[in-house]
Amino acid sequence: MRTQIRIAQIERKIDYLNEITKSPAKPYTRNAKGKQKANLKNFHTYQAYGGVGVHRMDNEHGGVTTTIPLGTKRECYDALCNFINGIEFKS
Fold it and tell me: 61-74: per-residue pLDDT in tens?
């Protein structure tokens, strides 16, 4: 029987992905005036309709590219592990 995947496990994998790709840890930061600024190349989760996926910040206005499309937590976690394995294999 497979164990249940939790969002926290996916978030830890994304933290690791941001680390190995030398990407910012958070999708947004606030400047001195309190205005938000998008952090380019950051990987982060998104959730909709009961599914979860992974986006990568694409521009300074908050535009994103879908890296892993919406799916179950298990599908997202497995795809994320495969994505990381591919990056580590290439290195």
Answer: 889 999 999 999 99
* Paired tokens of 82: 């495969």
Amino acid at 33: K
C-alpha pair distances (Å), 8 with each of 17, 20, 34: 14, 19, 28
Residue 22 and residue 36: Cα distance in Å, rounded? Answer: 21
Closest CA to 63 of 32, 90, 81, 41: 41
DSSP character string of 4-37:
PP-HHHHHHHHHHHHHHTT--SSSEEE-TTS-EE
Q: What type of residue is 79? A: A
CB within 8 A of 36, min separation 6: which ones? 28, 29, 30
Model's pTM, two decimal places?
Answer: 0.90
- At residue 53, φ and ψ (nearest 5 deg) are -150, -175
